[in-house]
Amino acid sequence: MKILSALFVSAFTIIAITTSLPSIAQTPTPITASTNQLIKDTLNQIGLSTPVHTITPTGIDALLHVTLTTGESLLITSDARYVINATVEPNPSTINPIPANIMSDKPTGTQADEEYRIALLANMDALPLVDSDTVFFHTSIKGLLWAVAQNGTPFLVSSDARHIIGGDVSVIDHGRLIGLDTAFETAKNRHTLTTLDPDNLIIYPANNERAVVYVATDINCPYCKILHKNIPNLNAKGITVKVIGYPVYDESPEPMRQIWCERDNAKRAKLLDLAMKGIKTSNQCSNNDNHLLPNITKARPLDIIATPAVYGNDGRLFEGSVANDELVKFLISK
């Protein structure tokens, strides 16, 4: 499975261009002179000084392949609103045609329905890290879906499953490279949070709830401990905290599994409180059950790379300090 890495460092850097060219059969769709000029002007505005050599179709609706005079390349939509720092690769799997009636586009961040998901998975037999739990989300680009592999690698796939792209969609707005498509990310996250099993969360309820926050946590994560210590303060300010057990440290999976074997939420919360203070808790598991796994699997589309990962109920990712009231301000509008 060849998946290219996105090289966008930040919204404030000029695009770092990949050097490989797409090895796909191009669809001879004509590109108008106005589209050609729009793309050239937009790339120049966002800081790409290298001249454009060619602009060609990719076989994916509205997505074009730009080759620079240096041989480097990128992908951009025909309206120049979205750019991907990657190239299109042919799906090496056996292709089973997907009926057109189940490939209809939906709003960005919406999960593909089950019939469509199964049809897409039927075209992934050569991609071993794409498993039966993989879900797909419609992006802001027509004909392109987003998914994340079993090992946490996100990728893009064409609506007919014939093409794979290893990169992220970034937004261009008024001649500026903004960064990741936050409208997509927020909608995707919001949907993903609704799929989590509440019986496998640890919930710290607020008496007079004004907001809900989801926290993916690890008992050995220093910043997780800082945030956890602040939970009573969050509850007092009307914020219900829903904890996703998400061990990332090598020593965390087993003790966290033991905590999650306790099926009473209040008792489980007390065990987590102790573990966050470094106090070893007694074993709660009488078998090999792992109540962490269901929500870890369901949370895969959140694309968590570190803990604590903090999300508002609306799907927004919190990226501020957990040591002060920044989170409260993020969650509760004045």
Automatic annotation (TrEMBL):
The task this protein performs is described as: Required for disulfide bond formation in some periplasmic proteins. Acts by transferring its disulfide bond to other proteins and is reduced in the process.
Q: Where is the Thioredoxin-like fold domain?
A: 207-330
Q: Which family does it belong to?
A: Belongs to the thioredoxin family. DsbC subfamily.
Q: Which PANTHER family match?
A: THIOL:DISULFIDE INTERCHANGE PROTEIN DSBC, THIOL:DISULFIDE INTERCHANGE PROTEIN DSBC-RELATED
Determine the domain of life of the protein's source: Bacteria
Name of protein: Thiol:disulfide interchange protein
Establish whether keyword Signal is in the entry. Answer: yes
* Species the sequence originates in: Moraxella nonliquefaciens
Assign the protein's first listed, main location to one coarse class: periplasm
Q: Which residues form the signal peptide?
A: 1-25
What phylogenetic lineage does the species belong to? Bacteria, Pseudomonadati, Pseudomonadota, Gammaproteobacteria, Moraxellales
Q: Does Signal count among this protein's keywords?
A: yes
Sorted keywords for this record are: Periplasm, Redox-active center, Signal
Q: Name one GO cellular component term.
A: periplasmic space
List locations, semicolon-separated: Periplasm
Matching InterPro entries: DiS-bond_Isoase_DsbC/G, Thiol:disulfide_interchange, Thioredoxin-like_fold, Thioredoxin-like_sf
